[in-house]
Design a protein that fits this description.
With 165 residues, this protein is an alpha/beta fold. 29% of the residues lie in helices and 12% in strands.
Length: 165
C-alpha cells in the first residue's frame, strides 16, 4: 500500500508530522481529515470517526488508515470498508495484528477485507465510487438531504480539517 487516506483525532501539526513520517516510508497521503484534539480522544463517538473517513476519501487510494489507539475504531471498520470500497486499517487493529503475529496466531476480523477472504469478494473488491461533487462542498445550493430524526447532516470540510488535494 503506497497511497492512503489518513484520519486522525490530532491537531494539524501532529497530523502533518504523521504525514511526513509516512512520506519518509514512501507512503503518500492522498486525503486526510483530523479533529484537532489535544485530549479526551476516547470521547469521540463512532459516528464522528465514520464521518471523518467519508470526508477524507477524495480520490483513489489503496487504503484508509485511522490513527490513534485512543480513538474508537474497531466497530466502524467493516461498515467503512463496505461504504468506501477500500480496506480500512486502524492503529488498534494493526497493533493487535502485530501482537498476534508475535504469538504465532493469525489475525481474524469478520467482514474486514485484509483478513477475511469473504469480505474481499464483496463491495470492497469493487472499484471506488467517487462521491458526488457537492457531498462536502459546503453551500452548493443543493437541498439538504432528508435524514431520519435525530441524525445530523455530515460535517463540513472545515470541521475536520478538510481534504488535502
Amino acid at each position: 500500500m503506497r497511497r492512503i487516506v489518513l484520519v486522525t483525532p490530532y491537531t494539524k501539526s501532529v497530523t502533518d508530522a504523521l504525514e511526513e513520517y509516512l512520506a519518509a516510508a514512501d507512503i503518500a497521503v492522498v486525503g486526510r481529515a483530523y479533529l484537532g484534539l489535544t485530549g479526551e480522544i476516547w470521547r469521540v463517538p463512532y459516528r464522528d470517526v465514520v464521518d471523518m473517513a467519508r470526508l477524507a476519501v477524495v480520490g483513489s487510494a489503496d487504503a484508509l488508515f485511522i490513527s490513534c489507539t485512543n480513538l474508537p475504531t474497531y466497530d466502524v471498520i467493516p461498515q467503512s470498508e463496505a461504504e468506501l470500497r477500500m480496506p480500512v486499517l486502524s492503529a488498534n487493529q494493526v497493533t493487535m495484528w502485530s501482537a498476534l503475529r508475535t504469538m504465532g496466531a493469525q489475525a481474524v476480523g469478520p467482514y474486514q477485507a485484509l483478513v477475511d477472504p469473504a469480505a474481499r469478494s464483496g463491495p470492497v473488491a469493487l472499484p471506488p465510487v467517487p462521491p458526488p461533487e457537492e457531498a462536502y462542498a459546503g453551500s452548493s445550493g443543493a437541498p439538504e438531504p432528508d435524514l431520519p430524526d435525530g441524525l445530523d447532516p455530515p460535517p463540513s470540510p472545515e470541521e475536520y480539517g478538510g481534504p488535502t488535494g
